[in-house]
Specification:
By secondary structure, the protein is of the alpha+beta class. The protein is built from 24 helices and 28 strands.
Length: 677
Amino acid sequence: MENKERDIKRIQELRELIEYHNRLYYQRDAPEISDAEYDKLMAELIELERRYPEIDVTDSPTQRVGAPPVPEFAQVRHLRPMLSLNNAFNDQEVRAFDQRIREKLKITEVEYEAEPKFDGLAVSLLYENGILTRAATRGDGYVGEDVTNNIRTIRTIPLKLPKVTFTFPIEVRGEVIMFKKDFEELNRRQRELGEKEFANPRNAAAGSLRQLDSSITAKRRLNFFAYDLNWPPDQEIINPHTDAPLVTQSEIMDLLDLWSIPVCHERAVLKGVEALLNFFTAIDKKRHHLPYEIDGVVYKVNNLAYQERLGYVSRAPRFALAHKFAAEEAQTEVLGIDVQVGRTGILTPVARLKPVFVGGVTITNATLHNEDEIKNKDIRIGDTVFVRRAGDVIPEVVRVDFSKRPPSARIFTMPTKCPSCGADVVRLPGEAAHRCMGIACPAQIKERIKHFVSRSAMDIEGLGEKIITQLLERGLIKDPADLYYLTKEQILSLERMAEKSATNLLAAIEASKKPPLDKFIFALGIRHVGEHTARQLAEHFGDILHLSKATKEELLSLRDIGEEIAESIIQFFQESANISVLQKLAQAGVTPKKEKEEKKTEFTGKIFVFTGTLKKMTRDKAKELVLSLGGKVSSSLTKETNYLVVGTDPGSKLDKAEALGITIMSEEDFYRLMEIK
């Protein structure tokens, strides 16, 4: 009995000692013992815990080595939604945020808590009686994936909180990240094993955390930084320094730090917007010297009571803002310039680059837009250039470093023959783009047919890119009209095409023969004619025959149609090859439905803008719903916009809508307005 008591006491000593060395090694990067000494302590603890299986190991550091693979991640509903933040990209937007806060609170100066915005994977940690019992990814904000086994392998996250006396559950929120040096080491090992390298630290962290086999996660050096704490609204957490309930965001961060939960020590409490902007500038200057990647700064109203008063708008808190850094730039070499042929025949020059890491991804290509762009920037093959990428924006070449131009640098000229079909390439008057004039150009045909069958156009289900490619390669189709002359035998001859699939595809093609006129017009791929313009044309002309005979004056009389669009429509119907395709479609029985006289509704003429991801239906379906009720859908906010519908992960449109006084509604509000249950 005496030995058991001694061993149990030793177990507790070892657990505390190992966690102490974990904090030194992983959080402070200042180990006091060698790896061999650490392994010896761990081996002793494992042996003692094996000897006494009745001892609870839930909070033991031995649980960080990883569990066996799981078949899939379970779904976890968050105690409170994990909301995203509204973004600001310049000082003016930050000042507008501060002004809104001051006006809503009716105070002259606001105190904020500011900290770097980590570029990682958001997770929530559930502690019950001070023990880590569950961890989940952010997911869609409401439901995430259970990654408890993997989170346990992160040695900076305490499995048990020290000095916690309350019994109610709390939820710690933060970001799982990978330090830059650990990312480089991971990629070095990937190269040695001949495996694919990770593009950036965030992807590496996300990929490591979502391993089904947590023993793999355990081998990768992940870190965690907390940024918030939630607890039941009917309970209180006492600040040990004041013996009073927590009242500020900064007190929350200090308490998390006291509990040995990693928090960022670059944070600050600041008063007024000028202090925020100065903090942002200081962090921006030092961010490349930080051991981790950050993509901005987060500002939060420090007073928790003020946070409660300010509340939330849709999926984001009113009391917080993410101030994002400007697009990053990096230098690399132009290895060559290729030309891509698009759906409408436009030739786009694309720079092939020596791979470079910038803006969170590895870039190998960047658009050069057109010949004028190349000439204006004097970009040559072999040049060293600056490339830029921000968020999901297509990478672009910003400028040339002329001091590094080699004597061998070559001037690029646009081809006079299409690289896809060999037809003539021309640059039409008033346009910057070069175009292939070959109506049967393989590059155009494939893209034209993909566009023709897409959901927003003829909506032919089951006719994907692989099938289209096979049909073209086998010469079974040469233009969109040929789809309606396909036989079952021809479709069955395609690779991996079974009887049922062939029957379903033929049925889908047949079902598409009576499309709404606006979708048919859009499907034709007329240059500059998008969904909105197609609907205008359908409403005005009523059928294809009248549209094909429209004069320039008649087209210009329509709202939103200018010279360029009118010329494009007339040019399309003057092309004999296009008329032949229309005739073939008619002969195959494709007869677009004429537009009916629309009834006036309360939504007639109302302009809707969508931001974020909708949960109940696709963005396209929501647009169709608005259009069917006489409303309009735009991609940008103006003073004329009537409604902004906000889904998951909204963009910067939210702040702009508030500034413009536009009605903002959640997805649920939108459905109620549209009388959808």
